[in-house]
Amino acid sequence: MKRIVLRIGGMSCSACSGGLEKYLNKQKGISIANVNLVMASASIEYDESIIDYDDIAGYISESGFECIGEYSKTEDKDIGSSKKLFIVYTVLAILLLYTAMGHMIGIPVPSILNMHTHPIWVYGISFILSVPFLFYGFDIIRSGIKNIIHLSPNMDSLVTVGVFSALIYSITVSLLYITGKTDTPPEVYFESVAIVIYFVKLGRIIDKKSKSKTRNAISSLVQLTPTYAYIKSSEGEKRVPLDEVKEGDILVCHPGERIAVDGEILSGHAHIDESFITGESKPVLKKQGDTVLAGSVNSNGYVEYLAKRVGKNSTVSEIVRLVLESSSTKAPIARVADRICLFFVPAVTGIALVSFAVHLILGLGISSAVGALITVLVVACPCALGLATPLATVISEGELAKDGILIKKSEILESASRIDTLVLDKTGTLTYGRMKISAKHLHACKENEIMPLVCGAEAKSSHPISGAFSEYAEENGIILEEVDDFTVLEGYGIYAKGKNEDIYLVNERYLCENGIANPFGNKATVLADRGCSIVYAVIGGNVKALFGISDIVREGTKEELITFKAESIECIMLTGDNEHTARAIANELGIERVIPGAVPSGKADIVKSLKSEGKICAMVGDGINDAIALSSADISISMHGATDIAMDCSDVILTHPSIKGISTLVSTSRRTLRIIKQNLFFAFLYNSLMIPIAAGALLPLGISITPMIASLAMVMSSICVSLNSLRLTKRRNKNDIQKN
Question: Is 425 a catalytic residue?
Fold first, then answer.
């Protein structure tokens, strides 16, 4: 299966996106299609052996829309020209209103435009001025007709039927009067034809501008990456376009320049500003062996680095991809709105026809009946209903991405508001995971006899503890012994085969379960009480060494946990460490519930047990041993620097080295849901009030609206929803979590 995100042209409301999504999902070879109205995109997963890009583009075209191409950079270059054209039609609209209605509101008009004395001239000039609007709104009319043909009518279909009903009626009664078939000048709706299209276009321009703000946030990430790089070769430095850089190239970065691709420093050192990715305000010192990210700024040094992830594989590109794919998925509340919108247009059409018939039956005249028909079709607005959820969701996801919080699926944005239990791994999550050997005890051996083997075995491990041994070996000039048959003993430690002997680097539970004598007495307990992780070196079946490995709590972690406690979110530490070590860290952080000695499968069982109690459980981890538990949680969150498998299993990725983004996620989720509910309430209220009025339900009270007023009301409803959603762009504080 292959996934592709395409830009779609011609969508105007959720009935458009819903109809296209439904049509694509019916096609053979497409397994999943999600269409996003706000991003004007379609995320499609398809079988390459059955269909290809051209087939998909053909399906989109058949549905009445345009496949613009693969979604990479989001720019709306036509906004400027649209504004200029809109100004021209604004002048035409004013002239048309002056011609058709000037005499009605007491504005001085030439005698030729007096409806009472020269109605034929008024009809003719109004018709001539209204015709250009049919060309201006050709995209609306074309979309409306195509969607009617495909039996998936949308807002454009309502506008199209309303416009042509008004146009045909107005032409017909005008000709009847001109030919002398009627004596009284009839009421016509030429101005309604033009003004309805005008206001719909106004709504589109405002809507496009609102959407482009969100898309530009994503585009700005792409633009962080420089357009060129300096490659080092035998001939010196050579400046080349970025697309010529390949994995394995050696690149150079001078002070003040941006890193071109993700890589690893080979020589030199510099303070690198990675704030746009990690949220870390201060530049971080990077030296040989450290990784650097594309788009980060070299503050003060010269470095040479090996290109490792280029183009679409870079961290920045991955962030853009995750944001786009997330915005192309739908939260449960959005699916409800989509289902309503699919029935909305047919229902409105039915109401319009019934209104037309009732007006005729009551003897109100053909003019009144046509007016009611047109007004109902125009005033009904699936746009507000359709924008209620996706616009708020996309804005929030864009804001979270700016804060280094990447969400893979939109439904997570909804479910995060209900989190009541947070399960946290210790090493690398609550602590930095940069461990040091703070204590070392030997038994019946010398340091130079065992440390080359111990450090050589740990060098094969990806666990954060292994870094303590690597650092120790580097500081003490230890030459590592090569080992074979390296094996991870889940929940216990590691095994490796040296040149002469096997070695096990394990925890105390392994000693107990295998009957291995511990010659160190209570030394392990003393170290554990100090917050150290305990590692035993077992060589030749005997314990030869005891290591106390200490870690440091991440900055800001304690304050973040206080925030969760204030909001009644229970925090649980889940770790493979022994109880003494785990309890020491927990006491420092104020965590009351600790579950120590957990193996990977045991972590998952604990998460499942919490869920069975009715808890909405979020799991935070960073290692391979957390992957099973992450997959089992309601919401899984991986930390900056996590292993690939942990990130693959996660719903949310934090690009900064701290859990502080979790409270931002929760607060944003709650605010977003609140905004969505407000939007849906307003959209339902608007349609519930305006459609009956448009149909003539309040005519006995002397209350009615014209098609022009209806079109203005329709536009205002969408603008109100958009403005309410844009409130989410206000910056959030991690302490602003609010209850629904």
Answer: yes
